Fold these 2 entries.
Entry 1:
Amino acid sequence: MPAVEIESLSHAFGQGEMLRTVLQNISLKIEPGEVVLLTGPSGCGKTTLLTLIGALRTVQQGTVSVLGERLDRAGRRRRQQVRRRIGMIFQGHNLLRCLTAEQNVQMGADLLPDLGYRARRDEARHWLRSVGLEDQMGKLPHDLSGGQKQRVAIARALAAHPRLLLADEPTAALDGATGREVVELLRRLAREQDCAVLIVTHDPRILDVADRLLRMEDGALLPSVE
Amino acid sequence: MRNLWQGRRIPLSWLLLSRQPVRLLVALAGISFAGILMFMQLGFRDGLFDASVTVHRLFDADLVLISPRSASSIRMAGFPRRRLVQTLADPAVEGVSPVHWGLMLWRNPETRLNRAILALGFNPDDPFFVDPSLSQKTESLKQKGRILFDQLSRPEFGPIADWYREGRTVETEIAGNRIRVEGLVSLGTSFGADGNLLTSTETFLDLAPQKPPGSIEVGLIRLRPDSDPQQVVERLQSRLPDDVKVLTKQGFIEFEKNYWKSGTSIGFIFTLGAAMGFVVGCVIVYQVLYTDVSDHLPEYATLMAMGHRLSDLLGVVMREGFYLAVMGYVPAYLAGQGLYWFVRDATSLPVGMNATRALTVGGMILVMCMLSALLAMRRLVDADPAEIF
C-alpha cells in the first residue's frame, strides 16, 4: 500500500467569476520510506497540494488516499484522526513559546494512544537525543537557535510515530549549512522509521537529498526527470 | 487513580498563564477587584439588613404577635391586648409579655431641636430580654419618667451618652413630658430609626397619650421547651381573629428585612452594585483570555494540524478560565475579610464574612471566568490549520 496515492486531483479557490484553479489533474504516488522533494516557483500550488495531502483541507475533485485512508470521502473528524499519523514540519518552526523543548516534543508524543505519561516523556527525550539536543531539553524556544528550533520541530513530528512526514520549506529560515544538516537529519531519521517524506522546497542546495524529484508549474506536475 | 496520573498531559493551560506573569497579574488583579466589589456590595446590603433588626433580636420570645396592618418597625399598628392574653389558653404557651412600639419626638437637650426616635415600652418586671445585663438595667425603669438611651444613636439626639458618663443628670422632653436618662444600652441605628430608647409600659403610655387604651403593637410569647413553634403558630393563627398575625421570632425578623428588601430600593441598589462588579470582571477576564487565544492562534492551529482535537484545545481555554477563577478568588476573599473588619471598625455596622456570601461570590467569579472563557473560545474556532503553511 503506497503512503500517498493521488488520482486526477483538481482544486480551485473562490467562486463564480473569481474562480481560480490552483491544482489541475494531479496524479502521484509516494511509496513507504520514499523521500520525495517537490519544487516549483512560488504560487504554483505546492502548498495547497501539501495541505490536501496533510488532511487539512477538503478534497474538491479527484481521489486522495493517505496511509490507506480515502481523504476525499473523509469528514472533519476522520481527517483529524488521519493527521495524527502524519508528521508535519513547518516553514517557521511553529513551536509553542510557553513550552520547553522537551514539552514541545511531548505535545507530539501525547498523540500516541494508550501510553502513560512517563512513557510519553521518555519518548520525547529519546527523539530530542536523536536530533542531538539532549543538552537543551529544558530550554524555551526563545533561547534556541534557528537550527535547534527546527530540530525540535523534527523531533516533535517524529515523536508521534508518523508513517508520512510532510515538510513545507523546512530550510527557509536557516542558513545553507544548517539547512543542509537539518534535511540530512530528517532523511536519516525518516529512513530508520520507514516513514515516507514529502518536502516542499525551492532551496536548490538540498535537492540531492531526495530519492525522487517532482516539479510543479501552474498547478500541474511536470513529467519527472529521473 | 494510577491510570489518571499516568494519563496526564503537559499542563498547557497552566504554562500559558504562568509563562506570562505580567498578563497573569493583570488578570488576577481584575478578577480580585471584581470579587472585592461584589463582597463589598453584598456585605453592605446584608449588613444594613442585619442592622435593621437589632431591636427585633433583643427579645427572648419564641413567637410574636403583630397587627396585620403593621408594615415595618417604623410603622407599627396596634391590636387589642386581649389577643395576647387569649394565647395563654394554648397549652404550649408558657408566658406572654406586651410591648409598645412607636416613634416619638425627642428633644435634643443641647440644641432643643426635635427628632424622631424609636421607643419601646415593656413590662420591667418581666422584660423577656435575651441579654441578662439588659434585664438588670430595667429595674430602674420602674420609676415613672425614666428611660434607657441607646448610646449608638446618631449624635443629632445630643451628647446624651457623654453627659451621662460624666455623671450629670440628663433630662429632656418627649411630647412635652419630662424624662430622665437612667442608663445606656448599645443597640445601633438602622434604616428606619436614627436612635432608640427603652422604657416601661407606664412611661410609654404617658409619652403617647393619644394611643387607644388596651392596644399594643407587639406581643411576645414564650413557649414550653418541648413544643414545636411552627405548629403553635398555625394553631394560634387559626384560633385568633384576623386582627393579629402570629409569627415565629425568625419570621418577625424576616418581616422587617423583607420590608427593606422589597418595599424600598435599597436591596436593588446594592444588588446592582454587585452585578456591576460581575460585569466588570467578565470584561476583564474576557479581554485577557481573548488576547491570550489571539496571541497563540498560530500555535493552536499547529496543534490542530498535528492532530490534536479541537475539543482538547477548548479544554485548554476552559482550564485557563478555571485557574484564573481560583487564583483570583483567594486575594478577593482575603481583601474582603480585611475590608469587613475595617468597615465594622469605622461604622459599627454588623458587616462580616459568612459562608453563604463567600460561596456566592466564589460562584459568581467562577461563572464570570467560565463565561469569558466560553466567549474567548469562539476565537479558537477561527484557527484554521490549513492557513499555517
Entry 2:
Amino acid sequence: MTALAHVPTGQSTASSPPPAARSGRYRFLPYLLLLPGAAWLFLFFALPLLQLAAASLYDPTGSLATGYAMTWAFSNYPEALQAYWPQFSRSFLYAGIALVLALLMGYPLAYAIAQKAGRWKNLLLVCVVAPMFTSFLVRTLAWKTILSDNGWVVGLLRDIHLLGPDGRLLATPVAVILGLTYNFLPFLVLPLYASLERLDYRLLEAASDLYASPVQTFRKVTLPLSMPGLIAGTLLFFIPATGDYINAELLGTPNEYMIGNVIDSAFLVRLDYPQGAALSFLLMAAILAVVFVYLRKAGTDEVL
Amino acid sequence: MTAMGHDAPAGDLRLADLTKRFGAFTAVDDLSLTIPQGSFFALLGASGCGKTTTLRMIAGLEEPTSGQVLLGDRDIARLRPYKRPVNTVFQSYALFPHLDIAENVAFGLRRRGIRKVDDQVQRMLSLVQLDGYGRRRPAQLSGGQQQRVALARALINHPQVLLLDEPLGALDLKLRRQMQIELKRIQTEVGITFVHVTHDQEEAMTMADTVAVMNAGRIEQLGAPADIYEFPATAFVANFLGQSNLLAGEAAGSAGREVPVSAHGGRFSVPAGRARADRGPVYLGVRPEKLHLAGSADQVPSGHQHVDGVVTDASYVGVSTQYLLRTSWGSELSVFVANSGTHGQVPVGTRAVAYWDPRHAFLLRREPGEDDRTTPVLDEPVGASS
C-alpha cells in the first residue's frame, strides 16, 4: 500500500486496482459467514416464535382434535394470568430467593478461586463445573435422595431440633429453592470468576494504601470492577431459574409448582395450546421487563 | 503551595532492626536507618536486593518478621496500611480504571469522610500539570500522565512519608529525565519526606539528598550521592554506582599519610584518608574518568601514578571516548576521556599509559582470592574474571 505514495503525480492511481478489487470481492463475505447461523435462527427460533405468538391468539375453545381457529383472542392473556398468577409470582419469588442464596455462596467462592486459590485454582474450577457432566435430571433426582424423609440431612436437622419430629424438606418450598440454587450456581460463578480473575490485586493494595478499610475496598474497588461478571452471572442464573419446572416437579408438590410446570402441563397434559402459548409469552415479557429494569439500574457505563 | 500543611506532627522515619524472611530466604536483613523528615531519600539496588520489600513494610503491605518502623516516636510496623499516614506511588501506578482522574485523586480524601474535595483535587491536578484532565479515564492518559495522577493521588493526602516504588521505570528515557526534575521540584514544594526505590543509579543521584545502596537485604553504604560516588565503601558500591577500575593488591599498613599498595608487580599509594582498609588484601580503585591516557611513562605528570597497557577498544559516545586498556597482566582498564578537543583520538592497538592522581584513588577491603574487577558490573554483583 505504501507504494501508492510513490506513484508520480499525473499518473492515474486508478491503474493500481488491487485494494479496490479486494474490498469488492470480499465485501459480502461477512454476510455469507452469517448465513448459516441466521438461517438456523430464522427456521428454529424466529418462525416457531411467530407460530407460538399466533397460537396464543387462537380460539381457546378449540382442541387438537377439532383444530384451532385464529380468532385474535387477546383475552387469552388476562385469562391465563388470572388463572395462574400464584405460580407466576412464585416463579419470581423462588428464583429471586435462590439468586440471593447463590450470590451469598457464589461471590465468595468465585473470589476465593480467582484471587486466593493459587495452584488449586484449576482444580476448584473443575469442581464447580464437574456436576454439569451429569444430566440436570439426574442431579435433581440425587437431591431427592439427599433431602428424603429418612435421609441423613433430615435426620440431622431433626436431631438438632431445627426440624420438628415430623418435619421434612422434600416436597417443601425449601427443597425447590435449594434445588434451583444448586442447579444454576455454576452459571453465576463462572462469569463472576472471569471478572474477578482479571481484578488486579495491586488495585486492592492501592485502595488499602489510600485509607480504604477492607469493607470500603470491597465496595469501592472490588465490587464495581466485578460488575460485568456479576451482571452476566445473575442474568444467566435468574432467567433459566425463573422458567424452570424440573426442580418444582421433582422436589416439590403442586403447591410449589412454578410457571414452567403450568406451561408444561398446558402443552403436554391439558393440550391447551392457546393458554400455554399465552403463558410462555407472558413469562418472556416479565423476564424481559425485569432484566431491562435491572440493566438500567446496574448497567450504567460506570461498570460496563 | 503554602496551604499544604501537615495534619499530624511528623517526625523522622526510623527503621530499627527490620527483618523480613520469606521461608528460608531473607529479603531484608536486620536493617536500621534513619530518614530525616523532609528529605528525599533513595533506596538503590539491583532487583531482588530487598529495596521494594523494605518499602512495602513501611507502607504496611508486608508485615516485618521482626523489627520496628518508627514514625516520630510511634511504631507503625503492625498497623494496617489504611491506618498509616504514609502513601505510595506504585510502580504500575495502580490507578482505578473504573473511576475518572478526579475521583482517583479524591479517593483517599473520600475514604476518610471528607466531602468537599473539588478544590483540593483541582490544586493537586495543577501541581502535577494536569489541569482539565479530571473527567478523563486512566486508560485515556499516556504513561507519563498516569504517573503524575498516581503522584497526585498520593500527595493529596499530605502523608508524612511518600513512598515511590520505581515510579519512573515504565517511562521512556526523555520523559524519565523530565519527571525526575518534576519530582524533585514537587518534593521541594511540599516538603514531605520522599522515600524513592530505584535500580537506576543516575536517577537516585539526580534526585536524592541521601542514597542508600542495598545489596542482599543489607545497606552497603549510605550518604550523599557525591560522597558515595567519590569514596565508595565496598567493591559492590564502587561498581553499582557508576563504574570503577578495581585492581587486586596487598597493603601492609599505613606509612605516615600514605598507604603503600603493591599490585601486579607495581607499587602504588593512596592517601590514608581514602583507605577503607590499610592491611592485607585490598582493591585499589580509580574511576574511569579519573584515568588519563599518555603515550609513554615519561609524559606522566609528576606526583601521578600509572599503569602500562595496549588500547584494545575505543567507543566514541559523543561527550567522551571510552577506551579499554589491556594491562601487561591481562586485565582491562576502563578509561573515559572527555572530548574537550584538546586530545586527538588514540587508535586501537597503540601502546599507552593510564595515569591518575593518587588523591582520586581509593582503597577497599578485598576478600582473599578475589581478582581484579575492571569491567562494568551492570545489574548483578558478578565478580569479573580476567
